[in-house]
Write a structure and sequence with these properties.
The protein has 261 residues and is mostly helical. The protein has 12 helices and no strands. 75% of the residues lie in helices and 0% in strands.
Length: 261
């Protein structure tokens, strides 16, 4: 077999292994998935009428449309925390050391984690989106091309955060530390434009909300689904995704290879 065939075969094996683990131990994914769903229900049914005043009124229906893009990206951040925990458990429990003694394509170990996490994140996004549709979210103005672009942005953002989460898992000594290290991936959406516009925040806080990866991605997704102005947020979101993907990839692979020496 060629080296490419071996890499594909071993990566596919590692992907099946990680999906099997997720199926046998779904509690971690479900616990992380409940956070954006609970926030969605809380902000819509408890704070919806009040919070909608900050976006120009319109009641709950307008606020549902406003927060869904942010909660979809928060779902991605929540789900990849499980990836950091899973990677850290593999490193601390010795299975990675066992893999290193076998004749397998070494990067396939990380590729399996990344591919499995991306699939789980996309499924989680679909589930949260379904809950949003059930409680009233509608995107009647989005064209098929805009829906495709929105899905592509979600997939690219998921890939970027997954590689960062893998790096966090590799440098964490245990699962608890990995979970703590990855918490910014779910906290950053709370400090973005996910729930209120940036210009409604205090002046000293606006740079924190604006100059981070979640805000341009949220505004781009919001523009694609709701027809609002995207402006410079589109290319900023893509640049953030590409930069985080490259950073996470080189951080993860260098750490993984260094630990194996």
């Amino acid at each position: 077999m060629s080296s490419l065939s071996l890499a594909v075969r071993d990566s596919n094996t590692m992907l099946r292994r990680n999906l099997l683990h997720a199926r046998r131990y779904p509690s971690l994914t479900l616990n992380l998935l409940l956070t954006p769903i609970m926030l969605l229900l809380l902000f819509v049914y408890i704070f919806g009428d009040t919070m909608s005043a900050g976006i120009g009124g319109g009641g709950r229906s307008a606020y549902i449309a406003y927060i869904i893009p942010g909660l979809l990206l928060m779902t991605v951040g929540s789900t990849v925390i499980g990836t950091a925990v899973s990677v850290s458990m593999d490193m601390s429990e010795g299975i990675i050391a066992r893999f290193r003694t076998m004749a397998i394509h070494r990067p396939s170990v990380l590729v399996g984690h990344v591919a499995g996490s991306v699939l789980q994140s996309i499924l989680s996004v679909v589930l949260v989106g379904a809950v949003g549709l059930a409680i009233g979210f509608r995107s009647t103005d989005a064209t098929a091309l805009e829906w495709l672009a929105a899905f592509g942005l979600l997939a690219l953002f998921t890939l970027a955060l997954t590689w960062i989460a893998v790096g966090m898992g590799l440098v964490s000594p245990n699962a608890e530390a990995a979970s703590n290290n990855a918490m910014p991936l779910i906290l950053l959406p709370l400090l973005s434009s996910a729930f209120v516009p940036v210009d409604s925040m205090p002046g000293w806080f606006q740079p924190i909300a604006e100059y981070q990866p979640f805000t341009p991605a949220i505004e781009t997704l919001r523009g694609l689904l709701l027809g609002t102005e995207i402006g410079h947020n589109g290319w900023l979101a893509v640049v953030w995704c590409l930069a985080l993907s490259v950073l996470g990839y080189f951080w993860s692979t260098s750490t993984f290879n260094r630990d194996g020496k």
